[in-house]
Amino acid sequence: MSEPASQFETLVSRLETRDAVIGIVGLGYVGLPLALACIDAGFRVLGFDINARRVASINSAEQVIRYISAETMKSAIDSGLFDNTTDFSRLAEADAILICVPTPITRHRDPDLSFVSDTAATISKHLRPGQLVVLESTTWPGTTREIVHPLLEATGLKVGEDVFLAFSPEREDPGNPNYGTKTIPKVVGADDAQSRDLAVKLYGQIISKVVAVSSAAAAEATKLTENIFRSVNIALVNELKLVYGAMGVDVWEVIAAAATKPFGFMPFYPGPGLGGHCIPVDPFYLTWKAREFGMETRFIELAGQINSGMPRVVVDRLADELNNATGKGLKGSRILLMGVAYKKNVDDTRESPSLVLIEQIEHRGAVCDFHDPHIAEIPETREHAGLAGRKSTALTAAMVAGYDAVLVSTDHDAVDYALIAANARLILDTRNVFARLELPMTKVIKA
Questions:
Q1: What is the DSSP annotation of 61-107?
Q2: Which of 21, 225, 331, 398 is most buried, with most CB under 10 Å away?
Q3: What is the CATH number of domain 7-214?
Q4: pLDDT of 192-242, one tens digit each?
Q5: Which residues are catalytically annotated?
Q6: What's the whole-model pTM score?
Q7: What is the per-residue pLDDT across 16-32, written as a single tens digit (0 to 9) for each?
Q8: In the chain, what are the domain boundaries?
Q9: Cβ atoms 241, 271 nearer than 8 A
């Protein structure tokens, strides 16, 4: 008689035949697109989320993310391959469990891994032999090995033999029309060969290209490196904006000219601060972990300080320009903020500098309303709870003319900038949108 197939061989076979069930924990901006990609590849997906309202909306094929159409959601639900639940006991049904939960930082910029550890603990309660667990949440090098691995092995099951564990960082860029979940290469790392092979096999059925690295820590470090690279370069151009501005030089013109060099230069652009879940947060995961090894990350921390200080710089400039224009500064002024999403053409407010701008403007005695074509109402956030429920104001000529200044924080395409240019008293543009669209600049200050 032939020997019975091992857990590894059985799971390889189920992945190759697309008979494996994929469990995805966290149905947000990472988990939901990943679930849809798995369904497109022919896998059955079990989605898990603690938000019962979101689960019900997804099961009803509602559009819960702006750039994922209702038609796409309906197609996924109608396929019969997509089921979502708040019942985490059903984790036992999944052959592979992909963890896509938040990894925020505290007010003191320390990592908050409570979502990861709580999820891993929940998985361990329902863990069975033959399952693959993959952490996708961005975190410091060593998290998979030091936090998730012990929780899984506390069940008595051996990682690499009975169950399998890997790390594969999410690389979502919400709203990017050129790259999506299936076309962005997937980095995969694990601390044993069988776990790595299984993760490569899984993602190879779904993603166009899989890049295997030697360990989970190497994969964790890869994602941090990508985002730290962006953070540092954005900090550089933010600082250059201030220096060149003092010299009367337009940093946007300089960047455009420098970008004509066909080698050795990559354009980054200044702004009112950093938003999104990754770039404002991820560098601090490395700075925190580095202290364990007696290492300082002065360059990374300086970039974080520059970027996090940009909202104050913008508000100071707004106050100065209002004083020049009206003689009264911010106190008693009415400001219209354009855009509360963290970047253009998305409906995502995570870590958005616009929320900081509103608070700082109002702290200095002004009234600050906002217009955002993609966000009708500011959602609840941990750091800006007082802004929850505020609604986007209409954008009409009369409304624009009634404000002392318009401050462009997010340059959504679905905004009538010509109307603003024609009716605003004063415009502070942190995104260079008016010059880019070749609109009248007589009232525009680049900030």
A1: T---STTS-HHHHHHHHHTT-EEEES-GGGGGG-SEEEE-----B-T
A2: 21
A3: 3.40.50.720
A4: 999 999 999 999 999 999 999 999 999 999 999 999 999 999 999 999 999
A5: 278
A6: 0.92
A7: 999 999 999 999 999 99
A8: 7-214, 235-446
A9: no
